From TrEMBL:
Its EC number is 5.3.2.1, 5.3.3.12. Pfam families: MIF. This is L-dopachrome isomerase. GO terms for molecular function: cytokine activity; dopachrome isomerase activity; phenylpyruvate tautomerase activity. It is found in: Secreted. It is an enzyme of class 5 (isomerase). Belongs to the MIF family. One of its GO terms (cellular component) is extracellular space. It comes from Psophocarpus tetragonolobus (Winged bean). Keywords: Cytokine, Isomerase, Secreted. Its main location: secreted. InterPro entries: Macrophage_inhib_fac, Tautomerase/MIF_sf.
Amino acid sequence: MPTLNVLTNVPIDSVVASDILRDATKAVAKIIGKPESYVMISLNGGVPIAFAATEDPAAYAELISIGGLSPTVNSKLSSTISEILQTKLFIHSSRFYIKFYDVQRSFFGFNGSTF
């Protein structure tokens, strides 16, 4: 159930969005070690964001997972997601924050219940 939510001030067309969703899904699943069928990615472009007092391309993301996160994994995720955003949206890695949440099963709902 890893879930990655990305907000960016860069407008995103549907083709680029599909590429990012596909690439991020594969990366998150591989790095965390969970099946792609468990991964959810949301991407919200054109959001007003100022970073370091400018509105140059920037992004903020949150990755939530039940287990699978650690300092080493988080570093790999940060690097890989940053690379995807740099390649697809031209957001420099110095203009991207990501926050990681490792949550207990009982704090995540699915299919009318909790995990």
